[in-house]
Write a structure and sequence with these properties.
Layout (H helix, E strand, L loop, with lengths): L7 E8 L7 E7 L2 H13 L3 E8 L12 E2 L2 E12 L5 E17 L6 E6 L9 H25 L12 H11 L4 H8 L4 H25 L13 E2 L3
Parallel strand pairs: 1-3
Antiparallel strand pairs: 1-7, 2-6, 2-8, 3-4, 3-5, 5-6, 6-7
Length: 233
Amino acid sequence: MDEMIDAIELPLFPLNTVLFPGQVLPLHIFEERYRLMVRRCLAEDVPFGVVLIKRGQEVATFDGDDAEPYSVGTVARIIESTHLTNGSMNIVTVGVERFRIRKLLHDQPYLRGEVISLPMADPEDDAAVQAAGVRVREQVDRYIELISDAAGLQIQIDETPTAAQQIGYLAAITMQIDNREKQELLGSQSVSQMLRRELALLSRENALLSWMSGSKEWPESAQFGFSGTLLPN
């Protein structure tokens, strides 16, 4: 999808998930209004927007109220789809680009929005940004090492991104942190802002993981792994 210069109207899928550009997100579509939305997207070969729920629930309530989303989301392109005998669907999507909602539209059974593209502010060739990207990548490597040791798994990333923005998205996808912190990263005004925040978060997470690894006191609720896969450009 080409970068949006002017506002466009986009179907929106509010979820308890933050999607980043380049991230693969599989979804099971069972609610009728979103089955309708996905069928239309497939028929017209158009994407939809994934937005984190700010208030409300993923599934419609009895009074039909829509969940209220955050204003920044990610365009999702459907790359695989399977129709099941009960009418539900399994789809695989990939995040394409960020957008900001200018206006919510309630003219369809599913939520739609008038949205504009939200590119990062600073250039990719900025030396300071590239240096920050290298530091974030080092901390991501350490995070993966600690998670691998804790879970007893061999976790590795096949293709290492080199562009600072892609490293930033990789860090955001990899970290198992609260969705509100992920949303903060997604809404960053610039790559440098995103990387600075990630360095702070990775420092916190790596210190905690190191302490827990040393004490061997892992909480029963601890979960390990990745919330998605970053596709190369």
